[in-house]
Each structure stands twice: as C-alpha cells, then as structure tokens.
Amino acid sequence: MHASNLLICEMFMSTSTSPSLAAWIEQHVLPLLTTIKEPLTGQHLLALEAISNIQYLDKRLSLNLTLGYPGDARRKALVNEVVEKLLTLEDVDKVVVNDSWKAPVSMGVEGKKPINNVRNVIAVASGKGGVGKSTTTVNLALALVKMGARVGILDADIYGPSQPQMLGAAKKKPEVRDEKAMIPVEAHGLQSMSLGYLLSDKTPAVWRGPMATGALQQMIFQTDWDDLDYLFVDMPPGTGDIQLTLSQEVPVSGAIIVTTPQDIALLDAKKGIEMFVKVNIPVLGVVENMAVHHCTNCGHEEHIFGEGGGARIAADYGTKLLGAMPLAMSIREEADSGRPTVVANPEGTFAQHYCETAQKAAAELWLQRLQSSDMPEIVVSED
Questions:
Q1: What is the pTM of this model?
Q2: 121-371: CATH number
Q3: Does residue 379 surpass a pLDDT of 60?
C-alpha cells in the first residue's frame, strides 16, 4: 500500500483489518464514502469523522455512522445513501450500517471554568429587546429534546426572567442539595434554572452590575445539571455586564443571534455579533424572527418588519441564516400558556421550523468543533 494522507485504517477500520483488506477498503470503499455529503454541513462523511469500524467478511460490509447532532430522519436518509453506494461494489452483497449520534464535547478554554455535566453551552443573544429571543430559545431547546438530546436552559436575563412562565413552571422552586447545589426545575423534558424561580413574580431584581453578575455565576456553577448535551443560555438583550461575565468566565461553545428584519434591530444585532467575535466565541448563525406575518383569518402573508434582513447580516459576517420564524399569534399564545409551540403543536408547521433551525445550529456546532481541533495525520504504508 502506498503512503497516503487520508485519515484511514486506524480511524475508520476495525483494528483487526489485514493489510490487504485495508488496501481494498482504501481503494474502493473510502472513495465512495467521500462522495456522500452530510447535507447540513456540506462536508463528506470522512471529513466529519462520521465513519468508523469498517469490516468486511464474505461479501458483507459493515460500518458505524455517527453524526454530531440529533435527528433520526436525516440520519436514516444518509444510511440509505451509504447502503445504496456501497452495494455498487462488485464484491459486496450486503451492507450493514450501525447509525447513532453523539453531541460533540467542547474543548476547555484556559482561564474558564467548565460547567459540570454540560457538553456544550450555546448562548442565544439579541442586540435589543422585543425581538422574540426568549421564545426562540425555549422552542429551539425543546426541539432538540424532541429529537432525543438532553437539554437545559439557563435564564440569564436577570432583570426580566421569562423562562419559568414559558415552561409552565412559574410556581415551582428548585430543590437544594447539600445546602450548596440547586437541582434544576424540569418541564417538558427540559432542565431549567432561572432567577424567576427564586423571586416572586412581583419582586424586581433591583441590582447593580456586580450583584447581577454574582447571581448569574451562582446559577451557572451551583446548578447540578444532569448530563446535558446542550445548555442554552437565554441572554439579556444588549452587550452589558452579564454578556461580558458569561463570555469571560464560561466556555461558551457558540452563539445564536436572534433579530427581526427591521433595520433598527439589525443595527443592534451587528453589535451582538461583534461582541462575540471580540471574545472569540463562534457565531453559529442568525435566526430571523417575525420574518413574515400570517393572518389568522385569511392566511394572507406580509413582511411587516421588512424582508431578508437576517440573510443579509449573516452574509455580512460570514455566518449562516439558521432559520426564519413567522410572526404568528399562536406562537405567542402557546408560550404565554406554558406550552411552547414545539410542545403544544409538535407536528405543526411552526414546530417543524423550530426543529429544522435547532438541528442546523447543532450541526454547525459539530462542524466548528471539528474544524477547531488539530487533526492528526495518519500515514498508511506497506511494511
């Protein structure tokens, strides 16, 4: 076998693979796998390290396919494509693909304390209030729960916590373990922590910056999260003390920017993106909220706040438009009732929009995690 720079054999094949079989796999199987692209990242399966444990015996070819985001439908479609491609090989009569998914584990950052039992922290931010950031956050989180992930929400909007109400858990209180650790409140399969659980609905948090950041730090590091794939942080609007504390002290895996198409909102959203760029936090993409209004009476659609603003700002900063959410009365009503859209109407069109957007964000997180790691070069040679 000639020297090769492909990341093969040790990475993709069974450890018991013979040299001659390894050569056959390199020459025939791997080239076919490089023609199959994962649709959300646009990368082929080998580049994503999605293939492992290739085995071949008696014209039976088997392998493992592992994606870095949840969602059975897309994974099954890839399985079918892999099987179809590999069955074109002359010496293969049967193909078995063992498929699964696994959330990436974000690398630790020097000077930042990791959050116990949390693999990835995703900050959801907006440059200004009133763009639907909290509603978007809870629906994206619940969408990943629906797809099989373990997810939590940290309500970092100290002065205006809204997640307890949206989750229908406003009257619940977190339990305290060993007088120091708070047990997150669970609702709809989602773990959550918020200052709203600790204060009454009529008690404002009239705090100066240090008190607010201290409360945030306590909620982050003294909450006993239970084995989370993703922790969404519902940020307060703007670029103040809370945002700086989170970016400086917590290993945030990536950020999602929520905006409306309106020019004023886009100006503030740009400031949010610039803040994350300055503190070296990857921006996973932009969610354009209230993109189009659906009339509940006649079904007429119109772009009340303008059109295409989210796509423009994403293009300006070299990131992705993850999704465009409509301005619909049902989304507001369902969040107010404590049963957000993904829970209240899981098969509806709006819930599907949230699921697709959440999946794109998780896939982008996976891709950025792979690209940020230094890949070893494995040279295959014939002894």
A1: 0.89
A2: 3.40.50.300
A3: no
